Amino acid sequence: MPSSSTPTSTGASTATVTAMDVLDVRFPTSRDLDGSDAMNPEPDYSAAYVVLRTDDPDGHEGHALAFTTGRGNDVQANAIAALADRVVGTRVADLCDDLGGFSRRLVHDPQLRWLGPEKGVMHMAIGAVVNAAWDLASKRAGQPLWDFLASMSPEQLVAQVDFRYLTDALTPHEALEILRAAEPGRRERRARLLEQGYPAYTTTPGWLGYSDDKLVRLSKEAVADGFPMIKLKVGADVEEDVRRLELARGAVGEDVKIAVDANQRWDVGPAIDWMKRLEPFAPYWIEEPTSPDDVLGHAAIRRGVAPTKVVTGEHVANRVVFKQLLQAEAVDVVQIDAARVGGVNENIAILLLAAKFGVPVCPHAGGVGLCEMVQHLSMFDLVAVSGTTDDRMIEFVDHLHEHFVAPVEVRDGHYVAPTVPGGGAQMHARSLSDHLFPDGPVWRA
Amino acid sequence: MPSSSTPTSTGASTATVTAMDVLDVRFPTSRDLDGSDAMNPEPDYSAAYVVLRTDDPDGHEGHALAFTTGRGNDVQANAIAALADRVVGTRVADLCDDLGGFSRRLVHDPQLRWLGPEKGVMHMAIGAVVNAAWDLASKRAGQPLWDFLASMSPEQLVAQVDFRYLTDALTPHEALEILRAAEPGRRERRARLLEQGYPAYTTTPGWLGYSDDKLVRLSKEAVADGFPMIKLKVGADVEEDVRRLELARGAVGEDVKIAVDANQRWDVGPAIDWMKRLEPFAPYWIEEPTSPDDVLGHAAIRRGVAPTKVVTGEHVANRVVFKQLLQAEAVDVVQIDAARVGGVNENIAILLLAAKFGVPVCPHAGGVGLCEMVQHLSMFDLVAVSGTTDDRMIEFVDHLHEHFVAPVEVRDGHYVAPTVPGGGAQMHARSLSDHLFPDGPVWRA
Question: Which stretches make up the Mandelate racemase/muconate lactonizing enzyme C-terminal domain (chains A, B) (predicted)?
Answer without folding.
Answer: 212-308
